[in-house]
Specification:
The complex is a heterodimer.
Chain A (H helix, E strand, L loop, with lengths): L1 H34 L13 H33 L6 H23 L13 H23 L8 H20 L2 E3 L5 E3 L3 H19 L2 H15 L6 H15 L14 H13 L1 H15 L5 H4 L1 H24 L1 H7 L4 H30 L6 H34 L11 H6 L2 H42 L1
Antiparallel strand pairs in A: 1-2
Helix pairs in contact in A: 1-2, 1-3, 1-14, 1-17, 2-3, 2-4, 2-7, 2-14, 3-4, 4-5, 5-6, 5-7, 5-8, 7-10, 7-12, 7-14, 8-10, 9-12, 10-12, 12-14, 14-15, 14-17, 15-17
Chain B lengths: L21 H20 L2 H4 L3 H13 L1
Classes of the chains: A mainly alpha, B mainly alpha.
Chain lengths: 468, 64
């Protein structure tokens, strides 16, 4: 009993840490969205777009995202293996090291230290720290799994295993470099090889940070919060294996129309389009699971979060593969369409699912109820509207940008200068900031709700302790 | 705490646990078939198509 209590505290602290880094990332995100249309918001050298942008992506992907993944994976792991974590103190150390690493990462990025590899910006000493972090996570995950007290492994555990294995391989390979001093290094790869390895990494960071661990949460918390069993176990397993098989081949779709050999691009496009099938396997499994009780979309606030989350996952996994096709890529690649796409995934699918999972876990840890369902509903509608404004404005201006870039006069010269295309983005960039503000207010409602629940739970805990 | 342990049975629907929806299977195999055709059509060593050739053709069309 005590061990569960200790582990639950670790889970809770991971959740609070991830919320903290989430706040940092979202504030910086708003800031850089303003910089796009108001350049005076750049304060050299530390607060320029070039430095803040990587603080934004790192603190949200690795602070909010990975922090939540660590904590929530531990939570799921204990319950599905029917035992506490094998190394509880190691998990606690993991928590401290995680926060130290993210803090140092943010500082180093502000200072301008950067490997210039997207999502792998951190210099080599921090890379070593990240690898140690990941090894600790892996030891606890696999140790607890080996010593599990439930023989059958539910689908969420498979998704967690895939996350642990794939991220380890991806991170190490893309960060191979020759150090040149403490804060500088040179990548082992150059030219087209570097691009290919980078996007193999970059795309699968999306796959194994924003997809597989989030699906682990979805498959676990959807049945838990609705009381409905997953429609088809077989479908979840077939979708899992085909997803993890196909994902690792798809990175080169980021390099369509580059010097990368044509056949590698084509192969990546083929696997990318195929990914629609395993992704939609999880989508329809989610829909069919809730189908017997659709009224829960009105009566159970968590059902709404998970179903909208998986819906955005479904949209994301059709839009994403389509973007890989040459005919689509040539119009929208390098335009503002791309952040529109990314944020449907991160704000619509990932954050929706992660916050709903936290809504489930925090009251459960204290054996109480959520502070306010009404606040949770307000949170839901604000983040939904904010995210839609963000994505839709960027899709519109992205298509416009692509069309302007491609427009040529009869003699082959460009019809529009780069500047003309840029200026047309301004109203959309301003609307995006408005969407971001709405999303941020929604997240503030979420944070308020979580902290009030913790307060309520702590008071409850104190009073029962006194009673005993 | 009552929620500490999970029974795996609770997660699995009794009657539909082994189902693979037909529509999904069509999607799954359909995309594999499409992939084979697309790979053959856009791989220089198989169809002769290449990015460079496609570019030249498009600029020729443009300047004509």
């Amino acid at each position: 009993m005590n061990t569960y209590h200790y582990d639950n505290q670790t889970v809770k602290s991971f959740i609070i840490s991830s919320i903290f880094w989430g706040v940092v990332g979202i504030v910086v995100g708003l800031w850089i969205s303003i910089q796009m249309w108001a350049p005076s918001w750049n304060v050299a050298p530390f607060f320029t777009f070039g430095r803040l942008r990587v603080v934004h992506t790192n603190s949200l992907a690795f602070g909010l995202g990975v922090g939540a993944i660590f904590g929530i994976s531990y939570y799921i792991l204990m319950r599905l293996t029917k035992r506490p974590l094998l190394f509880p103190r190691l998990a606690r150390f993991h928590l401290y090291l995680f926060n130290a690493a993210i803090a140092l990462a943010a500082l180093s990025l502000f200072a301008g230290m950067n490997q210039s590899l997207e999502y792998a910006e951190l210099e080599w000493p921090l890379d070593i720290g990240v690898v140690i972090l990941w090894v600790i996570f892996a030891v606890n995950v696999f140790g607890t799994l080996v010593k599990r007290k439930e023989e059958q492994m539910y689908i969420s555990l498979w998704y967690i295993i895939a996350t642990v294995v794939a991220v380890a391989v991806l991170y190490i390979v893309n960060n191979l470099s020759v150090p040149a001093g403490l804060f500088k290094s040179y990548s082992m790869f150059a030219g087209v090889n570097s691009a290919n390895v980078q996007w193999w990494y970059g795309h699968n960071a999306v796959g194994f940070v924003f997809t597989t661990p989030i699906l682990a949460m979805f498959y676990y918390f959807l049945p838990k919060s609705t009381g409905l069993p997953i429609y088809s176990h077989r479908l979840s397993i077939v979708a899992f294996w085909s997803l993890v098989f196909a994902y690792l081949w798809t990175g080169a779709h980021h390099l369509v129309y580059t010097p990368l050999p044509d056949w590698i691009q084509t192969l990546a496009i083929v696997f990318t389009i195929f990914l629609i099938a395993p992704s939609w396997g999880s989508v329809i499994n989610g829909f069919y699971t809730v189908a017997p009780e659709w009224e829960q979309m009105r009566t159970n606030y968590l059902t709404k979060f998970f179903i909208l989350g998986i819906t955005f996952y479904g949209l994301q996994t059709v839009q994403g593969p389509t973007q890989g096709l040459r005919v689509v890529s040539q119009l929208i690649h390098y335009t503002d369409w791309v952040p529109g796409h990314v944020h449907m995934g991160t704000l619509g699918w990932v954050t929706m699912t992660v916050t709903a999972s936290m809504y489930y876990i925090i009251p459960k840890i204290y054996d109480t109820e959520i502070y306010s369902v009404k606040v949770a509903n307000t949170h839901f509608y604000l983040v939904l509207v904010g995210q839609l404004i963000f994505s839709i404005t960027m899709w519109i201006t992205g298509i416009q940008q692509g069309a302007l870039w491609k427009a040529v006069n009869p003699d082959g010269t460009l019809q529009y200068s780069f500047m003309e295309g840029l200026i047309k983005n301004y109203p959309f960039w301003q609307m995006r900031t408005a969407g971001g503000v709405i999303f941020t207010i929604g997240m503030l409602y979420f944070i308020y709700n979580i902290f009030m629940t913790i307060r309520k739970g702590s008071a409850l805990e104190a009073s029962t302790a006194k009673g005993v | 705490m009552a929620d500490e342990l999970d029974n795996i049975e609770e997660f699995e629907a009794k009657d539909t646990s082994n189902k693979l929806p037909v529509g999904w299977l069509i999607l799954f195999w359909g995309l594999i078939a499409w992939g084979i055709i697309y790979f053959a059509a856009y791989t220089p060593a198989i169809s002769g198509w290449s990015q460079a050739k496609a570019f030249e053709e498009s600029t020729e069309k443009q300047t004509r």
